[in-house]
Amino acid sequence: MTQLRKRLPDLEVRWLGGHRGLEADIVPAHDVPLDRLWLRSLRTVDASVNTILDPLRLAASVPQALVRLLRWRPDAIYSTGGYVAIPVLAAAALLRIPSVVWEGNRIPGRSVRLSARLASLRTVSFAGAGESLPPPTMVTGTPIRALAGEDRTVARARLGLPPDLPILLVFGGSQAVRRLNEAMADAIGDLVQRCCVVHVTGPSAIEQAEALRAALPSGLHDRYRPFAFLIEDMDAALVAADLLVGRAGSSTLAEAAAAGLPMIVVPYPHAAAHQRANAAEMVEAGAALLVDDEDLDGDALRRACDLLFEPRLGEMSAAATRVGRPGSAAATAGLLEDLVAHRPLPTQAELDERTRALPA
Questions:
Q1: Do you find a cis peptide bond into 108, omega within 30 degrees of 0?
Q2: Exposure check for the chain: N or C terminus, fewer CB within 10 A?
Q3: CA 283 to CA 319: how far, in whole Å?
Q4: What integer is the mean pLDDT of 304-318?
Q5: Which of 88, 123, 130, 136 is nearest to 329 (CA)?
């Protein structure tokens, strides 16, 4: 959205979603009007009353989406796919409104495979994802926040971090990760002897982390900085850090690569191994080391701290930069403009060049 606003200062953005999910809190906080369809996002296949109600909600949401689009007459629709996207993209197709659907995982989910056929164009983070989606499908990478121009010294000062110590960033994604937090509880006394740790715990684990911090020896408290969330300051944490331990979500991988930040990647072990497939590109490029979820413990964090002092850390950083696509958001904005203006789309080679370039 930031890149679109740079190109189109008078841009009007609306968010059309479903019931259940984080969007009810996040979207209005960014001054974007939020409308919601009757259907829910699907998170389980367990039999319940919703097994009957969800198809009815889906059917009812198609005319509901059609009415919204007739009222708003958008120039284009951008969707991250999923169950909620089906009625929106169906309505857009009926009204001949250009639409782009984006898939962030290497293995597209079922709902994305269903909704992608309704879109004008499909974009993916990983080249292999396009194999199971209809053409045209283009590799854009993951649209992320702009990290260009962030200064490492300033970023550390912004978070109150020491300028002269290696920084280990431990981040489990949007939710608390019990295994990461338990490993931290075991290792933190050793870690702070050698480095500074920024630990994004999730809200349910922040009290435990604060207790760990309070129990550290005098003079070492400031070497452990737990945060429930880092939303506005996550860009500073990525630039300030020397190594990231975290999950293999599309955004986490993309932001680490754009920051040239090596990773110890711990794929979420469920959801059809999506995250293990996501991590493959960075691991194969030499930008990340993979640790299975069941193997993540205090000793694994201690070994991560060892890596901070090894020469190969610099090689991993260079490899991360090579696979990064920091210009993904700008390139995606350009694709939307091309569709609206009925201009020819760039070739994949041209798009690769744009996504690998730093955004203006």
A1: no
A2: C
A3: 10
A4: 97
A5: 123
CA 299 to centroid of chain Cα atoms: 27
Task: Say how far apart CA 151 and CA 157 lie, in whole Å.
Answer: 10
| CB 239, CB 128: distance < 8 Å | no
Domain count, the chain: 2
Task: Mark residue 100 as left, alpha or beta (left: phi above 0; alpha: psi -120 to 50; beta: remaining).
Answer: beta
Which residue range forms the structural domain that includes residue 340?
2-144+326-356
Q: Are the CB atoms for 141 and 254 separated by under 8 Å?
A: yes
5-14, 166-175, 218-227, 298-307, range with the lowest pLDDT:
166-175
Residues 66-83, mean pLDDT to the nearest whole number = 93
Which pLDDT score, from 0 to 100, does residue 358 have? 84
CB atoms within 10 A of CB 219: 8
- Tokens 């290792």 belong to 187
Structure tokens at 28: 């209005």
CATH at residue 23: 3.40.50.2000
CA distance 99 to 87: 13
Q: How many CB atoms lie within 10 A of CB 342?
A: 7
C-alpha dist (Å) from residue 268 to 5, 170, 234, 274 = 34, 15, 21, 8
Q: How do residues 237-292 score in pLDDT, each as one tens digit?
A: 999 999 999 999 999 999 999 999 999 999 988 765 789 999 999 999 999 999 99
At 176 the three-state DSSP class reads coil
Host H or E run for residue 290: strand 288-290
Among 117, 81, 120, residue whose Cα is nearest residue 97 = 120
The DSSP 8-state label assigned to residue 171 in this structure reads E
Type of residue at 252: T
* Distance between start and end Cα atoms, the chain: 14
Q: 284 and 335 share a domain?
A: no
Q: With contact defined as beta carbons under 8 Å apart, do 101 and 79 qualify? A: yes
pLDDT at 316 (0 to 100): 98
